[in-house]
């Protein structure tokens, strides 16, 4: 399906956050930080149901504090968790209440701050902020991660991941803190699938550095042992800021043992999507991958990714032991576009409460221009409507160019944005094969004409000979058939000894075939 509509809204300051409250209400946030230029900071609720997005609720934040750099809406819809640094003077004093909780009214007409806490413990606060904020779909846990400069005068500083227990109103309690020697690029958290673990409120957190992926078990009382589950081949070492090697950009948990990776290739030469399986106690396996290179005139592409969001559509029963499911991926590209890709997975039951991938396939869907002046800082899909008859989904993107762009799509049905198609998958191969055969034929013809000094083959000349022969045959009477038969036999004998060249021979074979047909008619 094609994008139905595209709409745009321009604000007064850069935007870094976008999160849907429901299928028609979008929360956006950002700002100019602690600036003397007068560029403010704020949080807004936007009505996206009409053709033009409209701001319905706003909260202006202090201009002497930092911008909102990340946020997550709790499933209760009663609170927003966000990362906002305090003033530079407070940071220089060695403290920073960076973890903010904002209350949302039931009518979505009011947003206000209700708490500010500090959880990170860096050696210095310069350039450190709450880069990632994620909430579990259960609403019981939240995970935040810091962004740090890789190298300072005193040495290499590591990133932090903090796991929190939260209630429906956003009140948070520290569970544990994780420190890594490298920067943290992304985190995610997902409930356990095992029924016993679910009863104990056990979930799994994943966090990624530019080169590696780690997982830990989360319980209300603490974290399990850290597991290094995947290392990207050729990735930079911890503490390295080189861009000459592939680097992980985003990670998304699908199950406690299966995750999706988005990797930026070196020198902005493209991105790679990977579906990775890490069964407990076994080595990681890349089940499926798909590579995008920079876009060309007739080819969709991505030079480097800046953000990823996923929309998981319902599972469809295939048999008593298997189901199919489509994931829709929105990837913000550094070339100011957004690429939509689908991932079709066939699941097979593996035990009472678990499943594994039987088959998987990435498929490009569409590349969308965004009209941003800078690359998108965040992309977000609208949640699925509880009304199954509604097929519209939205993809929002925000940018440091102060802009919000919304693309609206229509799903093919309840289970698919775009139905898998064998013809669509094989069409590029068929087209390539036909073009290759045509080029090969032209090349061989040129070689034969050059090396054999043969006259060029003119199909129109042959056709004219055939037409003239047929016209003449129509005028031949009964008395002329015998004479024509003799002429045809004589010409046939002469043609057997003809060796004047491949192209001339082809021409004579066509004429000979017409004459023999006439002789047979007689």
TrEMBL record:
The way it spans or sits in the membrane comes to:
Single-pass type II membrane protein
Name where it's found: Endoplasmic reticulum membrane; Golgi apparatus membrane
Give the principal location in a single coarse category.
endoplasmic reticulum
- Transmembrane feature ranges: 427-448
> Is Transport among this UniProt entry's keywords?
yes
InterPro entries per record: Sec12-like, WD40/YVTN_repeat-like_dom_sf
- UniProt record, GO biological process: endoplasmic reticulum to Golgi vesicle-mediated transport; protein transport; regulation of COPII vesicle coating
Keywords associated with the record: Endoplasmic reticulum, ER-Golgi transport, Membrane, Protein transport, Repeat, Transmembrane, Transmembrane helix, Transport, WD repeat
According to the lineage, what is the superkingdom? Answer: Eukaryota
Outline what the protein does: Guanine nucleotide-exchange factor (GEF) required for the formation or budding of transport vesicles from the ER.
What family is it from?
Answer: Belongs to the WD repeat SEC12 family.
Q: What is this protein called?
A: Guanine nucleotide-exchange factor SEC12
Q: Which organism is it from?
A: Orbilia blumenaviensis
Organism phylogeny = Eukaryota, Fungi, Dikarya, Ascomycota, Pezizomycotina
């Amino acid at each position: 399906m094609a994008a139905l509509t595209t709409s745009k809204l321009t604000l007064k300051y850069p935007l870094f956050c976008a999160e849907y409250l429901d299928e028609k209400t979008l929360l956006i946030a950002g700002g100019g930080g602690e600036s003397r230029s007068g560029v403010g900071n704020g949080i807004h609720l936007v009505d996206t149901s009409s053709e033009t997005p409209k701001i319905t609720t706003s909260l202006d934040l202090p201009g002497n504090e930092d911008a909102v750099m990340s946020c997550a809406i709790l499933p209760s819809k009663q609170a927003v968790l966000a990362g906002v640094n305090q003033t530079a003077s407070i940071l220089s004093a060695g403290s920073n209440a960076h973890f903010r909780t904002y209350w949302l009214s039931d009518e979505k007409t009011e947003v206000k701050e209700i708490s500010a806490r500090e959880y990170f413990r860096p050696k210095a606060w310069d350039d450190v902020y709450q880069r990632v904020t994620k909430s579990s779909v259960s609403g019981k846990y939240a995970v935040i991660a810091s962004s740090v400069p890789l190298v300072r005068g005193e040495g290499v500083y590591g990133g932090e991941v903090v796991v929190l227990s939260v209630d429906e109103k956003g009140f948070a309690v520290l569970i544990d803190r994780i420190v890594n020697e490298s920067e943290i690029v992304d985190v995610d958290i997902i409930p356990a699938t095992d029924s016993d673990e679910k009863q104990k409120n056990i979930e799994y957190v994943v966090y990624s550095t530019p080169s590696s992926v780690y997982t830990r078990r989360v319980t209300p009382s603490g974290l399990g042992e850290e597991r290094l589950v995947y290392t990207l081949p050729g990735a930079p070492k911890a503490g390295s800021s080189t861009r000459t090697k592939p680097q992980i950009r985003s990670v998304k948990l699908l199950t406690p043992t299966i995750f999706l990776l988005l990797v930026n290739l070196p020198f902005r030469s493209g991105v790679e999507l990977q579906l990775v399986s890490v069964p407990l106690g076994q080595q990681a396996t890349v089940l499926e991958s798909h590579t995008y290179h920079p876009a060309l005139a007739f080819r969709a592409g991505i030079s480097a990714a800046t953000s990823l969001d996923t929309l998981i559509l319902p599972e469809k029963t295939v048999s008593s032991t298997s189901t199919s499911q489509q994931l829709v991926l929105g990837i913000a590209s550094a070339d100011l576009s957004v690429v939509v890709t689908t991932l079709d997975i066939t699941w097979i039951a593996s035990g009472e409460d678990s499943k594994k991938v039987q088959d998987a396939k990435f498929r490009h869907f569409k590349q969308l221009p965004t009209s941003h002046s800078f690359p998108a800082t965040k992309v977000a899909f609208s949640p699925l409507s509880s009304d199954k008859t509604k097929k519209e989904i939205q993809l929002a993107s925000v940018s440091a160019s102060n802009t919000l762009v919304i693309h609206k799509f229509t799903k093919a049905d309840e289970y698919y944005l775009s139905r898998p198609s064998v013809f669509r998958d094989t069409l590029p191969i068929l087209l390539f094969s036909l073009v290759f055969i045509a080029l090969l034929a032209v090349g061989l013809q040129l070689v034969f004409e050059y090396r054999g000094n043969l006259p060029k083959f003119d199909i129109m000349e042959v056709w004219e000979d055939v037409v003239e022969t047929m016209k003449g045959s129509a005028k031949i009477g009964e008395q002329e058939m015998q004479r024509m038969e003799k002429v045809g036999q004589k010409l046939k004998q002469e043609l057997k000894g003809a060796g004047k060249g491949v192209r001339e021979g082809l021409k004579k074979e066509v004429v000979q075939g017409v004459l023999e047909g006439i002789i047979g008619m007689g």
